[in-house]
Amino acid sequence: MDREEVIWVTGASGFMGSAICEHLEAAGKRVVGTGSELSVCEPERLEAFAEEILPTAIINCAGIRRDATTLSTRVKAYEVNALGARNVALVANTVGATMVQISTDDVYASQVPEPVNEFDNPHPNTPYGKSKRAGEMMVRNTTDNHLIVRSSWLYPAPSGRFNAVLQAARAGKRYGARVDQVASPTSIDFYCRVLLRALERGLTGTFHVANTGRASRYDFAEKVLELAGYDPSAILEPEQDPATAEQLILESLVLEMAGVDIPSWEDELAHYMEERGFLNEAQGK
Question: Phi-psi bin for 259: left (phi > 0), alpha (psi -120 to 50), beta?
Fold first, then answer.
């Protein structure tokens, strides 16, 4: 008798976890989400829960965020982002589940002149990036049945810079956007579509999920405003700071080799905004 498909999502109350749960459930998957009530730093409780629900896949979204990770908090970051990932991988081994580790482009240096792909060695230079890189290594060394997924500048409608720039436009306020931070803006919808497809096909290994092209924070905000029907010049103020400048373009080379159609960030943004009713919203004001 085939085992019933059950997908367990840790950190389900966070941005990534909640978005992944929403997309999996919309696809008809049976999803079990856990949050702070079941810490990834408690291996015995994790194992007991896994043996109760018998997941076929565990997606580990639990983690200490980038903005909460500094030199003074790095011990906690390593405890959750690295040792916590290992704990989840051990549990996945115990119940025979696929382990999915949600990772980040921060495992690379913050400024890299050329696009980086899955075959380039990561060299993180921030406490957060180092803790996430350690988590990847822990997963890789613990279970062969794993997926490690790195992403770049994921945007959802309810929060983050996407929401902030539209809120500023609606309120008639100015919005500061960096011209010296450059990456590959990627919609959470595209990310979840690829993740779901990978799970359904039983894929393993490490891959990047990022829309093609490059954009600064300013470029992204400008495009959001244009598509929504606002005048970017009336809202945006360019900002820069050499101390926190970034340039990191993720190349989804493994997806390209697999024949996956990867839209440009501009095309995906237009599709994303159309799906959610944000296109030309200014005309309705």
Answer: left
What is the SS3 assignment for 280?
coil
CA–chain centroid gap for 200, Å, is 19
**Measuring CA to CA, how many Å separate 110 from each of 45, 69, 183, 209, 240?**
36, 15, 10, 18, 15
Two tokens, residue 86: 């290992």
Query: CB-based burial of residue 196 (10 Å sphere; 0-12 exposed, 13-18 middle, 19+ buried)?
Result: middle
CA gap 226, 188 in Å, rounded: 20
User: Which two three-digit tokens encode residue 25?
Assistant: 């459930």
Task: Say if pTM beats, i.e. exceeds, 0.85.
Answer: yes
Nearest-Å Rg of the Cα atoms of the chain is 19
Query: For 217-240, what is each residue's pLDDT tens digit?
Result: 999 999 999 999 999 999 999 999
Q: Which residues contact 56 (CB under 8 A, 6 or more apart)?
A: 3, 4, 5, 6, 7, 97, 98
**What is the C-alpha to C-alpha distance for residues 65 and 196, in angstroms, rounded to an integer?**
23
The residues facing 133 across adjacent strands are: none
- Cα 228 from Cα 220, distance rounded (Å): 12
Using alpha carbons only, what angle is made at residue 29 by residues 28 and 34, rounded to the nearest 5 degrees?
A: 135
Among residues 234, 220, 236, the alpha carbon closest in space to that of 270 is found at 220
